[in-house]
Amino acid sequence: MAKIEELSGVAQSEVIVIPIIDVSGSMCGEKIGKVNDAMAEVPAQLAAINDESTDSKLLIAPMEFSSGARWFSLKNNQPAAVESFRWIDMKANGLTDLGEAFKLLTEKLTVEEKGGWMKGRGGAAPVLILISDGGPTDDYQSQLKILKQRGWFNAALKFAVAVGDDADKAVLAEFTGNVEAVIDTEVIRTDLASIVKAVIVSASKTASKSASMSGAGGNTATVVADDGPVADEQAKAEAIENVKQALTLDSTDDLF
Questions:
Q1: Cα torsion 9, 238, 147, 68: sign
Q2: For residue 215, is it within any domain?
Q3: Quick one: how far is CA 135 from the chain centroid?
Q4: What is the DSSP letter of 53?
Q5: Are 213 and 220 in contact (CB under 8 A)?
Q6: What's the total number of domains in the chain?
Q7: Would residue 5 count as lying in a domain?
Q8: CA of 159: how far to CAs of 6, 52, 73, 185, 234, in Å?
Q9: What is the DSSP track for 92-157?
Q10: Is residue 117 part of a domain?
């Protein structure tokens, strides 16, 4: 059967969803268990968004970090189709090398010609979700400074889920650049698994919609022009509002 993009003659904009998951020792037990519960359901929910869109396509590329950082369950370290991706439970132990996670992310937030994952002209910005209780054990700030020089990072929709009442939310806000994009699980008092799903799914839906609008005409800035990616502040504000709305519901199933 021909793919939708083949029938229409227009290539879909690929939006890469990158959950960056802390699997250090402080995340062991219930914390990582809830994250695994949520992530097991996320691919199917992202696939449902793909079914609704003819102009954009979501891919998934999970990363885990503890003592070092690595791409998780990806073939040849390439983003995976959400329709075929199957979650394998993560195990938590080791240090919190957040700087190593930022370094690994920096390597991929560049164009394919330079070994990255990003498309050139017409490419859509990624969705980045940091899931952590904070407390980095390495020099994360110097690597974050390098990461912030990537236009693709600045254009991305960025969220963080602060896991636990003792989470270092200030560190997470350094990543998102906006304290409102740090979801405090203790304030919301909602099951961690539901929060993780709501953040990933609602942010991904916003990104997919933005890519679709950009592909239909006008450059809404989540899509790259010749001079490189620029931040779409309207899309970012919409993503934050969508996440907040999602968290007022009992389940993300009510949204999509």
A1: negative
A2: yes
A3: 20
A4: -
A5: yes
A6: 1
A7: no
A8: 33, 23, 22, 13, 15
A9: --S---HHHHHHHHHHHSSBGGGT-SB-STTPBPPEEEEEE-----S-HHHHHHHHTT-HHHHHSE
A10: yes
Residue-level pLDDT, tens digit, the chain, 256 residues = 444 444 444 567 899 999 999 999 999 999 999 999 999 999 999 999 999 988 899 999 999 999 999 999 999 999 999 999 999 999 999 999 999 999 999 999 999 999 999 987 668 999 999 999 999 999 999 999 999 999 999 999 999 999 998 999 999 999 999 999 999 988 887 899 999 999 999 999 999 988 877 654 433 445 444 345 665 777 788 888 988 888 876 544 444 4
Cα 65 versus chain centre, distance: 15
Residue matched to tokens 């073939």: 75
Question: Residue 164: inside a domain, yes or no?
Answer: yes
Domain that holds residue 20: 12-254
Through-space distance between the first and last CA atoms of the chain, rounded to whole angstroms: 26
Write the CATH number for 34: 3.40.50.410
User: 3-state class of 161 per DSSP?
Assistant: strand
Dig out the tokens for 74 from the structure: 């990806």
Question: Which tokens hold the place of 60?
Answer: 């998934």
